[in-house]
Structure formats: structure tokens, C-alpha cells
From TrEMBL:
NCBIfam families: Por_Secre_tail. GO terms for molecular function: hydrolase activity, hydrolyzing O-glycosyl compounds. This is Beta-1,3-glucanase II. PANTHER family: GLYCOSIDE HYDROLASE FAMILY 16 PROTEIN, GLYCOSYL HYDROLASE-RELATED. Residues 25-275 form the GH16 domain. Transmembrane segments: none annotated.
Length: 502
């Protein structure tokens, strides 16, 4: 397909081309439970460049078309459903998820067990990866499995024809290689099959099940293939309807049976001989959204620091968002403070509103405030007065198509603080020893500090919820009955934030 993080640096063998070696399973997604794991996956919704660009796809993506549950064959699986359903000017809906900013892989053996729906004619399922740096095609793209190609339609072999592909930038222009491959007679993509990518710094190959001959193979040692050597890639799974790949761009010519479901039993990543690294990044309660043309990733390399890489600013201010929802904010006066800079000068917006559980939308409590970032750190402060009946809110940083400057850049946000006006004496703990855990908390919060210190728990409006002296260096607060939101644990006039969630 054109178009808090686990970073896996992996080295692996290639079937027939490299020595067969031992592997260690380092990460897997088995799609257990009854809901998508949003610690790993992000939903992509609405219309994107996949509709308006050269892909010319016909579907509108909805989170509701993505589910996790029984596949009818004894497995639990990811289920992506394409439907005949009208949304605006689009006559079809489907689902798309990606792991940007949460699971990113460089090198390794990647296996996925996938069952496709009947494709004839007009469905375009894909399991693929995009690079974490630069904009497409300079980011690099690895298509592990695509099916529904126009050539398969013409040959009448839709049930066993697939493609693997690489896309990259060559001397400032697009380059790509993606041969069609038809599996031997008796193979059916409408059953479960195992798709395997083997990726080393020298070569990329792809295999179906246990076939010794790869359906895709390419050397990546050339100077202009750095997209596949210099950075990690993230996963994408989707089921498109129509588009240039299928050769069908008129909705009236889609005749594949609908609704149609794509099942993914598992994805597994293996590491060679114990080499490599796994890094997990804590999002610290923040979420991100990229849509309506917006693209990029978010990382949290240090506590209190967020790095937002914007590869496409989209066509609206909200196309790139970093946000925190479910904040406890009764009516009153507040102050938002933060530090920020960017690799190139640009403008960002800040807003506060009521979350609607459908990102990126919210009901604003205020007009957006704009801040002009430079390449140097600046301290910003924004007073906010809230007067309505709502008691919870959503704090949003918008970094899409806003103003002038270089929109496709990296933005850095540090030490974000949202607190009632007049409570600046409750600075973050620095001079005294204090540990708060778990954070976020659901039932109990434990505070470790110096013995004899008084510990108090406050709402953001300054209302004391509880207090206790840490006689033996520890205090326990029961927070099960508190409203979801951010609270302050105060020790000696200094405070540390704790998030109460469910």
C-alpha cells in the first residue's frame, strides 16, 4: 500500500540466501481478548491520501469496522470488515490500524497468519510497513502482502495471486519494485496462510507458508536503499475497497461479496541469536491522532518530553494531534505551561474541550490559542477560564496545517503542566525524595518519601482529598472512589502528579 514505542532491532536469516540460524521470539501480537490493544495499535479513520492520491481507494475508514474476537475456526483474531455503507460521498466503509509510535521494527523475521475474504472483484487487503523517518517515499515502504491486483482479476486467479513490494526514493523521485506472484494450484488465500518477511541489512525476502522459493526478493545494499537500513518501520493492516491496485475506481464496478472480513491470527517478530534491542516508551497518559492527510509518529524518549515527528501536516489544523483526555477540570481558572521547540520554525495550536470518544473531535471550551515555535526552547504560559457544566476535559495540541513555516518537521513538548491558577507553589518534586506508584492508578496509590513527612492528595482545583504522615516512609491512599483525572500528591509544598483512571 502506498502512501510508548517498542523498537526492535533484529537480525535474521533469509530462506535459501543466508545461513539458517536460530531465532528467539521477541515480540508477538495474538489478538487475545475482546478489544484491540491500543497500547500497540492506533486506529486510522476517515478519508486520507489513500483516497485522494494515486491509490484512489473507495472506502471510508471507521474504528467500528475493526474488532477482536473469535474467527469461527477456534482462534481469536483481528477482524477487519469491509461493508457496503454510505458515509458522505463514500459508498463503502472498512478498517485500518497501524502501530506507529508504539511498535516499530528494524530487521528480523516477521510472520503473520492471515485469512483473506473473497476478493473478486474489488477488495485490496494488505499487511505492510512504513518507515519512521521522512515523508513517503523517502520513508521507505515494505509491502509484505497485498492481494486483489488487477492482473489477478484478468487471469481469474484472485484466490492465489499476491504481491510483495518495496517503495523508496531514488535521486529525488519515487522508485518501486513489486512483482505479482501466483501461488501453486491448490493454494487459497481464502484460508489461513503464513506470510513471512526476512529482513537483513543486505536483503529483503518474502515467503508464503513453507515455499522455499520467495515470492519477493531484493538486494538493499545500494546507496539509495538506505530507507531499509537506517531506521525502523511500523506495521499497518487494512482492507481497502477498490483503487488503482485493483483497477477498479468506480464504486458501481465493485462486485466482491460484502460484508467481507479479513482475519489476522497473529503477528510474530523473531530475533537472531539473541542480538538486538527492545525499547519500550511510556506515553505518560498522552494519546495521538493522525488523519485527514496527517501522518507521523510520537515518541516519549524521556519523562515529561514528547517528540512529534510530522511527515505530512494534512489539510487541517487537527490533522496532527497530541492530547490527554478525561481530565478532572471543574469550573475555574487554570494555567497551562509548557516548553516547546521545533526543528524548523512553525505554529501550533492549543485547545481545551470535551472529548467525544471519537478522535479527533471534541467540543471546544475556548478558541484555539496559537504559539509560534522556533528552533530554540521557549517557555509558554496560557491562562484558561472554564465556565460550563462539564467536569472533565480534553487538552489538545494541534500540529497539522497551521500558519506558515515548515509544517513537516519535529516538534518537541516538555514539562506540560495544567493546574489551577494560584497553585504554582506546588512545583514538581525535585529536592525531596518521593516516589508515587502505580501511576496511573485505579484503586490504591502508594507514596514513598522520607519518614515523618506529611503527604496530602489534592484535586487540580486545590481541594484536599486526603492526608497522612509517612511515619515509616510510606503512605497509602485509596483512590477507587475518586473521579478519573489528574491529582497532585503534595509533600513539603512540592507536588507530583498522579493520574487516576479506570
Amino acid at each position: 500500500m502506498k502512501n510508548n514505542s517498542l523498537l526492535l532491532f533484529l537480525f535474521v536469516f533469509v530462506f535459501g540466501g543466508l545461513f539458517s540460524q536460530n531465532y528467539e521470539l521477541v515480540w508477538e501480537e495474538n489478538f487475545d481478548g475482546t478489544a484491540l490493544n491500543t497500547d500497540v495499535w492506533n486506529y486510522e479513520e476517515g478519508v486520507g491520501i489513500w483516497n485522494t492520491g494515486s491509490n484512489a481507494e473507495l472506502q471510508y475508514y471507521k474504528a467500528a469496522n475493526v474488532a477482536v474476537g473469535p474467527d469461527g475456526q477456534g482462534n481469536n483474531a483481528l477482524i477487519i470488515t469491509a461493508k457496503k455503507e454510505t458515509v458522505g460521498s463514500y459508498q463503502f466503509t472498512s478498517g485500518r490500524i497501524q502501530s506507529r509510535g508504539k511498535v516499530e521494527v528494524q530487521y528480523g523475521k516477521i510472520e503473520a497468519r492471515i485469512k483473506l475474504p473473497v476478493l473478486a472483484n474489488g477488495l485490496w487487503p494488505a499487511f505492510w510497513m512504513l518507515g519512521t523517518e521522512k515523508g513517503w517515499p523517502a520513508s521507505g515502504e515494505i509491502d509484505i502482502m497485498e492481494a486483489g491486483n488487477a492482473q489477478g482479476i484478468a487471469a481469474g486467479t484472485q484466490e492465489r495471486t499476491l504481491n510483495g513490494a518495496l517503495h523508496w526514493e531514488h535521486q529525488g523521485n519515487y522508485a518501486g519494485y513489486g512483482p505479482q506472484w501466483t501461488a501453486p494450484a491448490g493454494t487459497s488465500l481464502y484460508d489461513y496462510n503464513k506470510f513471512t518477511l526476512t529482513w537483513t541489512p543486505q536483503r529483503i525476502e518474502m515467503h508464503l507458508n513453507d515455499h522455499s522459493t520467495p515470492y519477493f526478493s531484493m538486494d538493499i545494499t545500494s546507496a539509495d536503499a538506505e530507507e531499509f537500513r537506517d531506521w525502523a518501520h511500523y506495521f499497518i493492516l487494512n482492507l481497502a475497497v477498490g483503487g488503482s491496485f485493483t483497477g477498479i475506481t468506480n464504486p458501481n464496478n465493485i462486485n466482491a461479496p460484502l460484508p467481507a472480513q479479513m482475519f489476522v491470527d497473529y503477528i510474530r517478530v523473531y530475533q537472531l541469536d539473541g542480538e538486538g534491542d527492545v525499547v519500550e516508551t511510556d506515553s505518560q497518559g498522552w494519546d495521538s491522532w493522525f488523519g485527514d492527510g496527517g501522518a507521523g509518529s510520537v515518541a516519549f524518549p524521556e519523562e515529561h518530553l514528547a517528540t512529534i515527528t510530522i511527515s505530512n501536516a494534512g489539510w487541517a489544523a487537527y490533522s496532527v494531534q497530541l492530547f490527554k483526555d478525561g481530565l478532572s477540570i471543574p469550573d475555574g481558572d487554570y494555567v497551562l505551561t509548557f516548553r516547546a521547540k521545533a526543528d524548523h520554525a512553525r505554529t501550533i495550536n492549543v485547545n481545551l474541550g470535551k472529548g467525544l470518544n471519537v478522535d479527533p473531535w471534541f467540543i471546544a471550551y475556548m478558541d484555539p490559542a496559537s504559539f509560534d515555535l522556533t528552533t530554540e526552547w521557549q517557555d509558554f504560559s496560557l491562562p484558561i477560564s472554564k465556565e460550563n457544566v462539564e467536569t472533565v476535559g480534553k487538552l489538545v495540541f494541534e500540529m497539522g496545517d497551521i500558519g506558515a513555516g515548515t509544517l513537516t518537521t519535529k516538534v518537541y513538548l516538555d514539562n506540560i503542566s495544567f493546574a489551577p491558577a494560584g497553585t504554582t507553589n506546588l512545583d514538581e518534586v525535585d529536592a525531596i525524595h518521593v516516589t508515587v506508584f502505580p501511576n496511573p492508578a485505579e484503586s490504591n496509590v502508594f507514596v514513598h518519601t522520607d519518614p515523618g513527612k506529611k503527604v496530602a492528595l489534592y484535586t487540580l482545583t486545590g481541594v484536599q482529598v486526603a492526608s497522612e504522615v509517612a511515619l515509616h516512609g510510606e503512605v497509602q491512599f485509596n483512590v477507587a472512589g475518586l473521579a478519573q483525572g489528574i491529582y497532585l500528591v503534595e509533600v513539603d509544598g512540592k507536588a507530583r502528579k498522579v493520574v487516576v483512571g479506570r
